[in-house]
């Protein structure tokens, strides 16, 4: 078990062993979070910058809390109130943050590849918190952590990802993670949003929602990414909900132990009925809770930690 990376930019380049190291380290940090004193000094003296150029609730706040729990100093960069508005480039902005001794920069940006670009031009470590429709590695890691916690394993499980796959960075990172760990991944949604080319990533594509969910161990729902679509990809929200939304009727035709996941934010009544989102098969809020442990693990490993055995040392 080892970790030897300065950055966390994507899942595509990680090995199954590296992914497992993050998950096992997150398990150790989840235990730390259940103690009376939830803080450890692993990042004491380090400065972590949340450089979010796109909106976020869950990812930004859980990275902030993760860094605070590791005793780092944390700066939350607010794009709207920054000199980006005066035309300063991303590179100059990030280099100025580095001049203020930023050790780890967590970036969310609408442009795919923005984190990789910063990793090339900075000395600081870079974590990708979502780049366009490319990847969202810590979301996929927290999803895998949640699946492993609920089912005891990932290899051999049937995982259906249902919704807007084409524009989803969560889908891409989940596909890489789950296939590397041995799950059987099915993608489903409108044909305009689930191109067959995704089969090249090692998963199955179907446009028949009933078939996609009937024997799934996990159903991971994705919202329609209106902000990234350049044209209307289906006739109406109502038609999407009726053809692909997870309703009470559809849920009756799934396995009794199916786990319903969603990265958030959810659109109640569109991809998921409200009472299912809040129901006993849903782990949507547990995903958010697990995100804290996974992001603590990511920061810890990026800062030179080797794995779970070091969490309490
Ligand atoms: N899942 C997710 O990335 O949520 P936020 O956009 O709120 O960070």
Quick recap:
The chain has helices at residues 16-32, 58-69, 90-99, 114-121, 137-151, 169-180, 209-213, 237-244, 248-252, 274-277, 284-302; strands at residues 47-52, 73-78, 104-109, 125-131, 158-162, 184-188, 204-206, 218-221, 259-261.
Overview of the structural elements:
The protein has helices at 16-32, 58-69, 90-99, 114-121, 137-151, 169-180, 209-213, 237-244, 248-252, 274-277, 284-302; strands spanning 47-52, 73-78, 104-109, 125-131, 158-162, 184-188, 204-206, 218-221, 259-261. With 313 residues, it is an alpha/beta fold. It has 2 domains: 16-134 and 291-311, Rossmann fold (3-Layer(aba) Sandwich), CATH 3.40.50; 137-287, 3-Layer(aba) Sandwich (Rossmann fold). The chain has a 5-stranded parallel beta sheet. β3, α4 and β4 form a beta-alpha-beta unit. The longest helix has 19 residues, at 284-302. The protein is globular. The mean pLDDT is 95. It binds phosphoric acid mono(formamide)ester. The site of phosphoric acid mono(formamide)ester has 9 residues, from α2.
Number of helices: 11
Mean pLDDT figure: 95
Main sheet properties: 5 strands, parallel
The coarse overall form would be globular
CATH superfamily of the largest domain: Aspartate/ornithine carbamoyltransferase
The helix-and-strand class reads alpha/beta
**What is bound: which ligands?**
phosphoric acid mono(formamide)ester
How big is the Rg?
Answer: 19 Å
Assembly form of the protein: single chain
Order of helices and strands: HEHEHEHEHEHEEHEHHEHH
Strand order of the biggest β-sheet: 7-6-5-8-9
Beginning-to-end CA distance, first to last residue? 16 Å
Identify low-pLDDT runs: none
């Amino acid at each position: 078990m080892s970790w030897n990376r300065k950055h966390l930019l994507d899942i595509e380049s990680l090995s199954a062993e590296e992914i497992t190291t993050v998950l096992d380290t997150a398990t150790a940090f989840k235990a730390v979070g259940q103690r009376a004193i939830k803080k450890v000094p692993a990042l004491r003296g380090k400065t972590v910058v949340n450089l979010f150029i796109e909106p976020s609730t869950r990812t930004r706040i859980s990275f902030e809390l993760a860094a605070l729990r590791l005793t780092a100093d944390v700066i939350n960069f607010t794009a709207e109130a920054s000199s980006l508005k005066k035309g300063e480039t991303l590179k100059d902005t990030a280099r100025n943050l580095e001049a203020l001794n930023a050790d780890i920069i967590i970036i969310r940006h609408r442009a795919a590849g923005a984190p990789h670009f910063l990793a090339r031009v900075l000395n600081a470590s870079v974590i990708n918190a979502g780049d366009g429709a490319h990847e969202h590695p810590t979301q996929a890691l927290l999803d895998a952590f949640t699946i492993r916690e609920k089912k005891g394993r990932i290899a051999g499980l049937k995982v259906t990802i249902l919704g807007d796959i084409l524009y989803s960075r969560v889908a891409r990172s989940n596909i890489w993670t789950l296939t590397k760990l041995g799950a059987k991944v099915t993608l489903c949604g409108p044909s305009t949003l689930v191109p067959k080319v995704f089969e090249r990533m090692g998963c199955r594509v179907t446009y028949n929602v009933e078939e996609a969910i009937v024997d799934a161990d996990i159903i991971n729902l994705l919202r329609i990414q209106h902000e990234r679509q350049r044209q209307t990809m289906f006739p109406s929200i109502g038609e999407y909900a009726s053809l692909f939304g997870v309703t009470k009727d559809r849920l009756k035709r799934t396995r009794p132990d199916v786990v319903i996941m969603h990265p958030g934010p959810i659109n109640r009544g569109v991809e998921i009925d409200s009472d299912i989102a809040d129901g006993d098969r849903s782990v949507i809020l547990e995903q958010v809770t697990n995100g804290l442990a996974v992001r603590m693990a990511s920061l810890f490993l990026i800062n030179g930690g080797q794995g779970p055995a070091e969490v309490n040392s």
